[in-house]
């Protein structure tokens, strides 16, 4: 019995040592991976990297990590031509089946899913930002975007009729086009200045698109929905490159 107790104590001690070594190793690996992602994506700050699964060391020996979670608080994505950018907030990605080199110089995930937020003021930057004539004596422009409830965006317009400013609002749907563009389109056209105006002229003001290029690792937009502080975005991708 005494020998059995000694063996049990030894097993517990060795198990505890293994757990400690495993956790130290994963903490070091998370730091290395975070530095690689920062360098690869040109980030201003170091992202959060959380390597999931236990034990970590056996995953390392196999050269593949089951799951890695990456969080980037602020990401500047491309916004179409002219070098414009758009700020993506709270980008969180869950990557699975991550194959990596020994020094984390390269890392590629089989698949990735995630979420992010685009603030309304960021979307507004690409809306019609100056008064546009829609009829003789009538101009209009988008001045604000907000949550309209039920997954809609409330688009606030300022219409000027013969020098008099009149506020107008319209509810719009937001969708993803081609995996890289957010489209905002009015559900119903507002009446501007109390006169009949061609739909094409009105939609030049109410409707717009925001292209988003160069998301980390080649992930793409999948779905968008209006929320309290901005547009909530769902992203996904295959063969997503974290580094290298």
From TrEMBL:
InterPro entries listed in its UniProt record: DUF2993
Pfam family, one: LmeA
Name the UniProt record assigns to this protein: DUF2993 domain-containing protein
Organism: Streptomyces tunisiensis
